[in-house]
Amino acid sequence: MLIGAHVRDDDPLAAAAERGAEIVQFFLADPQGWKKPQPHPHAEALAAGEVATVVHSPYVVNVASPNNRIRIPSRKLVVQHAEGAKAVGAIGLVVHGGHVTKDEDPAVGVDNWRKFVQRQQDEGGFAVPVFIENTAGGDNAMARRFDALARLWDAVGEFGVGFCLDTCHAFAAGEELVDVVDRAKAITGRIDLVHLNNSRDEFDSARDRHANVASGTIEPEVLAAVCAAAGAPVVVETPAEGQAADIAFLREKLGR
Prior knowledge:
Layout: E1 3-6, H1 12-19, E2 23-26, H2 43-48, E3 52-56, H3 68-87, E4 93-96, H4 106-122, E5 130-133, H5 146-156, E6 162-166, H6 167-172, H7 180-188, E7 193-195, E8 198-199, E9 210-211, H8 220-230, E10 234-236, H9 243-253
Parallel strand pairs: 1-2, 1-10, 2-3, 3-4, 4-5, 5-6, 6-7, 7-10
Antiparallel strand pairs: 8-9
Helix pairs in contact: 4-5, 5-7
């Protein structure tokens, strides 16, 4: 089980060394922008290094959207970032589940996901595995509550997509963490990555505000138990100044 952190994108390996991370997650472009990622200056070292990597797609991506001006560029961006992720040797590309607006049918968003991954499979697949991540808020989100996640997975599961479990997001969405791994696996059949984050806000708040492992509203022991049960690589997306301590805590609790 690899344990690491989301780090700055200019020199992920240096950031990994500072934190004692075995895996690093980073962006390949502006997370709030639509630009195609440029070749990473440390791509060769990242691909050849002992530190594992995972790439997070930009936050603007919304494959579920019925709006062509959002959905079509989102599809293009996912494909481009998957190609960029391959160049740095990444194990996968994390993509948020996305949403439709309050006046739109969530079933349309699910179908948009299915059409995207099916078409991409027909064209040879993604350059690296795509990990769909559960999200914290929005009544019409594709992957907030687990009943919605189940409907999404019924549509896309056959196409080999992976799943990224975010603990803060699940907690904020009103999903109990005690048995969250078992329930997620019952739906998806897999957990490929864990985003291990505490929450600054209360249970079912629908607010996505991360905290370091020891300083949020989730008991640290519960977070460690999620990691142990998932048996997947773990990335903390917590405030940078506390990431080394977060990693050390998890290693101690998991006997690593």
